[in-house]
Amino acid sequence: EAGVAQSPRYKIIEKRQSVAFWCNPISGHATLYWYQQILGQGPKLLIQFQNNGVVDDSQLPKDRFSAERLKGVDSTLKIQPAKLEDSAVYLCASSHTSYGRGTDTQYFGPGTRLTVL
Amino acid sequence: DAKTTQPPSMDCAEGRAANLPCNHSTISGNEYVYWYRQIHSQGPQYIIHGLKNNETNEMASLIITEDRKSSTLILPHATLRDTAVYYCIASYSNYQLIWGAGTKLIIKP
Q1: Model confidence over A55-73: pLDDT tens digits?
Q2: Which of A24, A78, B41, B58 is at 20 to 30 A from A91, Cα to Cα?
């Protein structure tokens, strides 16, 4: 079974630039999560999708961050414009749960390490 | 969600059992205890979870005290590849996971 795929693995941009991350979840997984992980801390949930609908985006800085999950499969997370404090690893995870706000076992991708200069 | 407390770091000799403690004194009756780990430069990996009973799988054992206020993750024969940050999370089933800073476990040869 293929795991969660993410790209790119690394990205370096200057502040005020835009950046996008892509995630392909495990086939058949209804729930998709985007997390932000700052160095030395645990992951922080940014947004959770159930199929192509948003379940929880309460911690997403909506003035600069956006995410979509077209057709309930792949997802993209965008930052526009980036700030220095956005430097972090962005993790995508998926789970099989098909109802409610799921915390069924989450499977994580390798993450994208973003550096904002 | 109940808050969990873990030591920031631990060492263990290769081949020995690694016992990672977690305190969750305010856990409610319906909250599960989940363990994940994160090897350097990788995404977190699910290990095990439990509610009241002790649990065992191919990776580890989870021992939950009778009052459910604390638990211990046991890696029976630690190898160098078990060096990672281990996260203990208390959460309701089908609810958001709140991640702390975890325990950095270093396996020494």
Answers
A1: 999 999 999 999 999 888 9
A2: B58
